[in-house]
Predict the structure of Trace amine associated receptor 1.
Amino acid sequence: VRLKGKKTDVVTDIHPCYEIDNFKYIWTSSPSIICVVLYIFLAILSIVTICGNLLVIISIIYFKQLHTPTNYLILSLAVADLLVGVIVFPFSMAFSLSSCLYHEDLFCKIRDGFDISLSTCSILNLCCISIDRYYAVCQPLIYRTKINDHVVVTMILVSWGVSAIVGIGVVIYRLRNEKCEKSFDDIMANTVGPVLSFYLPVIIMLCIYFKIFVVALKQVRSIQNTKSGGTSSKMERKATKTLAVVLGVFLVCWTPFFLTKNTTPVPVIEALNWLTLSNSMLNPFIYAFFYSWFRSAFRMLISGKIFQEIRLNLSHIYACTTLSN
């Protein structure tokens, strides 16, 4: 059991790596094999997430031919996923969802703040990508005027700014309302929050991609016997398909968590929470499957050719500087 004020709560769901000691939820002194295997798996998941998204970031930054508005948005999404691997994974391993439910402290609130902030950032980046794809497929003649570097940078700054405000707001709100009644907190956490940070953006994205799908079908019929302009349109449709898969994987990873109820066992909730975090690991594999440029960049990074090119470029710059002096 666990005492809380004048109430006595019965704790029936225990994390395999934690135990109850003096009514506190603490790390077990003798972790089981399940606990060790679990944390090895989560550590591998974190490392793969970090390495995969680093490949995406380095590829887009280094190769100038990849400097396009769409890829800048993918870069922003990869940065958010990278931070999930660097920050949220370690925090979630040290302060699991189970332990934070029974032993809320400052680090649990900080973990929740980063989790919510980066999750919001991911979905806002996906919203921006869907808008980019809408103009690329549905309004191709005005695409370059509507979606340019300045507009994309604004989109990225707004996404990260709103996400930071949401994350900081969550931490401040929970710190100030520790002694307030739980009813309002439950309304915010179970109704308003999910609607604003998940359901509403998802509905908007689904509507946009449905419109893109309808227009893309019409374009396929109209250019079947035309070679001119067909290649460009085909590339846009492929990019749209890839990013639609990214959205689909996001929904598969996140929807079960938001559909869970308060009666759901804690181990199930925690497993679904880790499923949401694994979405940050899956995106680079989607790029690798669909994009040849990512596979080429991956091979160059693994083989070390990219570092050879950087060294040659630096040598060339040094030689030119020496000659000019």
Observations:
- The longest helix spans residues 182-222.
- The chain is about 80% helix and 5% strand.
- The radius of gyration is 23 Å.
- The CA atoms of residues 177 and 185 lie 8 Å apart.
